[in-house]
Description:
By secondary structure, the protein is of the alpha/beta class. The protein has 40 helices and 23 strands. An eight-stranded mixed sheet has the order 18-17-16-19-21-20-22-23, with helices on both faces. Strands 3-2-1-4-5-6-7 form a seven-stranded parallel sheet, with helices on one face. A six-stranded parallel sheet has the order 10-9-8-11-12-13, sandwiched between helices. A hairpin with a 6-residue loop joins strand 22 and strand 23 (942-945). Helix 1 (41-51) packs antiparallel against helix 3, helix 3 packs antiparallel against helix 14 (355-362) and helix 6 (165-179) packs across helix 22. It is elongated. The model is unreliable at 1-84, 86-117, 350-363, 569-583, 604-613 and 666-672 (pLDDT under 50). Residues 33-62 are annotated as: Disordered. It comes from Carya illinoinensis. Keywords: Glycosyltransferase, Membrane, Transferase, Transmembrane, Transmembrane helix. Residues 396-501 form the Glycosyl transferase family domain.
Amino acid sequence: MRLNSSPPDSLHDGGSVGVSGTDLAFQSIRDRFPLKRNPSHHHNRSKSDSDRSPPHRGRSHHGRFNRKGLLWLKGRSAFYSVVIFAVFLFAMASMVLQSSMTSVFRQGSERGRSLREGLRFGSTLKFVPAVVSRRDGLDSLRSEPRIGIRAPRLALILGNMKKNPQSLMLFTVMKNLQKLGYVLKIFATADGQARSMWEQIGGQLSILSPERYSLIDWLIFEGIIVDSLEVKEAISSLMQEPFCSVPLVWIIQEDTLANRLPAYEEMDWKHLVSHWKTAFSRASVVVFPDFTLPMLYSVLDTGNFFVIPGSPVDVWAAESYSKTQSKYQLRQDNGFSKDDLLVLVIGSSFYYNDLSWGYAVAMHVIGPLLTKYARKNDSGGSFKFVFLCGNSTDGYDDSLQGVASRLGLLHGSVRHYGLNSDVNGVLLMADIVLYASNQDLQGFPSLLIRAMTFGIPVIAPDLPIFRKYVVDGVHGILFPKHNPDALMTAFSLLISSGKLSEFAQAVASSGRLLAKNMLASECITGFARILENVLNFSSDAMLPGPISQLRQGAWEWNLFRKEIELSTGEKQISDGKATFFGKFSVVHALEEEFTNFVYSTNGSENGTGILPQDIPTKLDWDVLREIESSEENERVEMEELEERVERDIGDWDEIYRNARKSEKLKFEANERDEGELERTGQPVCIYEIYSGAGSWPFLHHGSLYRGLSLSSRGRRLRSDDVDAVGRLPILNDSYYRDILCEIGGMFSIAKRVDNIHGRPWIGFQSWRAAGRKASLSLKAEKVLEETMQDNTKGDVIYFWVRLNMNGATGSNDVLTFWSMCDILNGGHCRSAFEDAFHQTYALPMHVEALPPMPEDGGHWSALHSWVMPTPSFLEFMMFSRMFADSLHSLHTNPTQNNTCLLGSSALEKKHCYCRILELLVNVWAYHSGRKMVYIDPHTGSLEEQHPIEQRKGFMWAKYFNFTLLKSMDEDLAEAADDDDHPHNMWLWPLTGEVHWQGIYEREREERYRLKMDKKRKTKEKLFERMKHGYKQRSLGG
Length: 1037
């Protein structure tokens, strides 16, 4: 939040207040309506009256005025008289308009109060967006060598499929993003008339029901775009791990929720506001189409608000309105004649306390205009000046007429309309629209866009926002601000004999063409740029094309022309953007849910829940403790009496039955669920590795599977899932859990494997296999179990998720194993593997250390989805631990840059070793001589890959020999036992068991020492008993 104030320019120098004063971290506000009354209205009105007291003393000279010519209006007295009129009009209007924004500040509590106190005379609000991820877009990534094999994927979730201006904007943007190379997958929460239109660019469209939100693997997308508040439930599913890291762009085009936020504050619904704020915080960026909405939603801002100007909503509203309304009929209904020339004066619609005075004084530039054209009907026509500001229910029109009559203006020459009236009708009636505010703007005023769409010539000061879009003399007339003479000259260009000149008609026609697609190009490029800055482009994804190749600068009107023609031009179009959406069910549904919660809570507090007499007192607890103590003493005495009474121990059959019964009860006490019983006798158990509640719907149930949670907090409730963190404490550190991923869970199973896994076969499967429809079907599971039972001889690995070896899209090239590994690891797989291999086996640098992998067209395993014998698994873990430690030591070398080179995006760098460790099983299985069999996950068909007979001459069996690996493991264990760490951050001892012969001998000696101590204590106890005799304890003692 930033506040920089500068003193207002002197009025004698032609300056204006509120133009270039304060810059605040808010967006300057576009014209917006309707507005609320200011609760402090009367206070401000009295203040304005007191401030105007000096000019009022000048009215004592009215009696000496010349009735024919009103000569007093010449010179300085004329100037100040008009200033009085302008001040009165706009100050009165601004008082009412204050309430809309002060209510917004009240929502922000301390933050809003500090802003309100910081605003002062000459201040301006300005929105400053937060810093996005990459300020330079993709320029740095494009400069690096990169091989992408697939197009970047985007998921688009639609809140509805209506054809309205919001969908027109989104459709235009998505169509242009496709031209940059993005591939779209479109989801919708409900079906609608726009389905066929969306399927033209996104293919088959999927309708999402609430139960389907959690059945989509969102990790396959580079980012997700949602278009409305209605998609809030889908966003809730994205707030769970592992989907929290997927970039999310949330487009908010409606103010439905913003209009309810003040009510939430008044009713003290803090939990509901917090609920929405949490949802907004999930988005990587919340995008608004104008600079008004961020202010209205400011209470929910968590630093991720952003504005991309541009929406066809104003053009759509104006065109729809003009098709059903007549300009002359509207004039007749409002008391204007056909020959009247209406000049509509508009300005900035938001004011903040004292800022209204600065704005009102700035309006002195229209003084000479009123003096010349509204004084007498002697200029060739009847001129009417209409002021559009404030609300129409505060008696402003009567006050305005009274002031106009005292200033000598014709009765009816000045009219006032509020922004809560039919704004489109007021705009359509006008012949000329004058924008009279001199405050700098960030966005093009929506009222001017509608006026230009109606074909009305506009006059505006030469503010930067107008110079950016409007060519002076072509699309409108621009005049230097604070210059009344320039305004008079600009106005005269549009008037000829009391009517609009031909030049005015040409300007109006050009302005209408400009307004139709004025902000389209900026909107399209804005979304393309924000995606470049926010999305995570994985190493195997191609980068989108540069934004400079976008040439389209128009909305896709041709697909929506029928909807515009069928629009009925109802008045609610002038009420803003919410009318196109109606009442959002998600907003009102949450309100009802929260209301029921409040009522139930209040009911409990009022006695409908737990009655006061039902709550135990301190005396009740004391009595209860005395009763329990008495019962415990009685039980102990009875047990001691039973021990002294001679009993018949019974026969051996009864003793055996009692023992069995005790074992059964003990087993039932430790039983976790039915899955453990079902797995009894199974030859294999497949551990499904997952992290976070978001992956729960992808996990299997049954005797073949068992969950393996990488996070204690994300573990499934009421299940016998293995807690990897409990077995391997290093996974409690999020850094190591992120860089190791699934293989960290495997390390936890391998550590004291006999305590958890006692079956001959063991398997693993990532939850992502089910998310990508590559998990085993029931038929494939049956084939796998039968195959393992029949083939008990030999060492074999079965896998069912294969590595995609296809080349880039549109290419027939087939990739090799190492080239694919390079693509998945930022182009550094071979170098990293070779360096780690050198480190693991302490090989000289001149020795080749990249194991050869065949190019025989066979499949390779991916996603850690395989089954192998348990002894083979332990051997693989032995090798993996040493390799992971070597890889980690290379990336934690204090003399080198420790930035992860195995990924291009921030997400890939976070999970640095995951992709190379995912492919490690292929290198170990191939070179250790394991038989590799691919099982089709759908049909269950088996196919051997890379036959052992064809590996002769290629395998590096000496490096994967079990004896060598075992000796290396013992050497590392001895070094760890002696605290002889080869480097500072030594990963190997933390990933599993540390065991060597010295540890075994030390443990044996410790057991022997404990045994001798026990014998010594027993002898001492017998000696004491023989010496002093045996003393019987007293009853109850």
